[in-house]
Amino acid sequence: MSTKPRKHPGKYHISQRAKQISPSGIRKFFDLLASTEGVISLGIGEPDYATPWHISEAAIESLAKGYTMYTSNMGMPELRQELSRYLKKECNLGYDPNSELLITVGVSEGLDLVARAILNPGDEIIIPDPCYVSYSSCIILAGGTPIMVPTSEENNFEMSAADIEARITGKTRAILIGYPANPTGAVMSKSKLAQIAEVARQHKLLVISDEIYAKLVYGVKHTCFAALPRMKESTVLLGGFSKAYAMTGWRIGYAAAPAEIIAAMTKIHQYTMMCASTMAQVAAIEALKSGEQSASDMVEDYNRRRLVMVKGLRDIGLSCFEPHGAFYAFPSIKVTGMTSEEFAERLLTEEKVAVVPGSAFGRCGEGYVRCCYATSLADIEEALSRMKRFVDRYKKEG
Ligand code: PLP
Description:
Elements: H1 16-20, H2 25-34, E1 40-41, H3 53-64, H4 77-91, E2 101-104, H5 106-118, E3 124-129, H6 134-141, E4 145-150, H7 161-166, E5 172-177, H8 190-202, E6 206-210, E7 235-240, E8 253-256, H9 259-272, H10 278-290, H11 292-316, E9 328-329, H12 340-351, E10 353-354, E11 356-357, E12 369-372, H13 377-394
Parallel strand pairs: 1-10, 3-4, 3-5, 5-6, 6-7
Antiparallel strand pairs: 2-8, 7-8, 9-12, 11-12
Helix pairs in contact: 3-10, 4-10, 5-6, 5-9, 11-13
The structure holds pyridoxal-5'-phosphate.
Pyridoxal-5'-phosphate (PLP) binds near residues 45, 106, 178, 210 and 242.
């Protein structure tokens, strides 16, 4: 009989897949933050605005009228019609509202659905490193394997087509990209995206493009990946309302893709979610019809904050890549000699400023922290002065 101590199996049987993923490195920080007084948070990635009132009002009115039932699994026909018009206007793409659009519970659900719809056990999806925390977990939970493509500050945190191609195997099913990017704020140019499209075409791969930050760009243009020549038929476009319309809590988004993929995603959605929240769908219709001005006002404001944040970080002595999208700055903290987790923990306890360690987003995020500037200018300025004190204390000379 073996004398080795057996690892305690736990009281309940937990699946291998659930064991394989770790709790989000972001959430862990927020638990710590919630228990500390007087913290300025540059942590969580969401607008500090409330949803524009006309959008909330549309939903309130629908409740008053008694629109509280399930909708069609794919989403309200009126919302899909409106979305189809919107995608025509924004990306010049014609999606059939009856077969090529699915209303989801945020991009979060869209990511999960597409992974489950296309992966068999052991199949691979290529993703950037660092990237949004859900990408690899959704792939693992669907039985697949995430294959990371390293990106770096030197290359503007863009995925290179050559690096992607070098990782393609017989098991590769898709390339998952997310630009404008969380956590770096990087935006990929049309010409670089076209190189990725070329690789996808040559290898007959699907591209999943998470464009939740499409509207949040500063001084550059966002390229809708599906609008690149001949890419509509091999792209799953994921979009949402959370960021551009300050609607994180409504939990509403969409997928636009070839009918066969939407049909597979809809089956899973049907059995797990039934439909997205009815009142959120009504709010989304209003956002698409009349939310443009509110969204662009917020973007203008984010841009002012972005300039203050990036300049402030550089003035402190932290090198900071110029973010052209989303609402994150991703400064290097290597001058302090700390790991990004140590930096974030000590900054929180010593100076009460919450940032997210870059390592929460992948190995290539080590040496950086994510600072979200979707917060008031006064808070950004106070956070920067606390960070200056902190960095001055620990900066290694030389
Ligand atoms: N994709 C990216 C890149 C994100 O940063 C986030 C949220 O932070 C999401 C998806 C999730 O979006 P949603 O609120 O639509 O589920």
